[in-house]
Amino acid sequence: MPTFEITTASADDIRMMADWAHAEGWNPGLTDGQAFFAADPCGFLIGRLDGVPASCVSVVRYGSGFGFLGFYLTRPDLRGQGYGSRIWAAGTDRLAGRNTGLDGVVEQQPNYRKSGFSPVWTNLRYEGLAPLGVEPPPGVTLVDARTLPFGQVTAYDRRFFPAERDGFLAAWTTTPGRTALVALEDGEVRGLAVLRACRTSSRIGPLYAATPETARALVSALAATDPSAPVAVDVPDVNPAAVRLAEELGLTPSFETARMYTGPAPDVDHGGLFGITSLELG
Known about the structure:
about 280 residues; alpha+beta; 13-stranded mixed beta sheet; about 25% helix; globular
């Protein structure tokens, strides 16, 4: 009989998980694994069949009461044989007692509902060539996020995410291959956006802003780092202004997921959420 064993993933395993995600059309960032590892080194599980990777899941713990599930994948040639459900059970056990979120692809959403997840909004990935040269609103300046006291950045992030994630955010904004910008007005943070290189379109996430005009300027400034390359943003439809902005920028929808939770939807600033950070870690 074949032997199936579930273990904590290594850094190499996480890179393999990203390759699997790319094969599904999810377009993960080229260096996302470094930031993912910083969030929760024990939060990534691999199921091995006779020592060979067969399935995976990420089950990252944030604080004492929140968790996020992602990277739920089984090798295509092994699907339908129970290896996915076994690693799912191990992963959800690790998050037992926590309000857990995920961004579920359309075909899996019925299964997630059966497992106790309820949808709260739809993420629509919009991508294309963004307009360049858009100026921020009067009084607003865009600066490199790394030049700010880190506490300002993390405090702003907490308005849009259900838990503290300082270690993750430090890696997410400083890892090579990405650009992080903050919008400032009178010394106050009024927006945050990070662009990261991916296998196809470069992705912007998070995209937070006090106004659509500030979000537009952030997207334009990030797109200017490589004017010939398309960008992509996972836009939550819970913020209608974010959907309008993506359409006004000339971006087109290409991919869809649903944000789902096992418990009550966290109280975050939906009006300033123009793009989620990542499908894997929220």
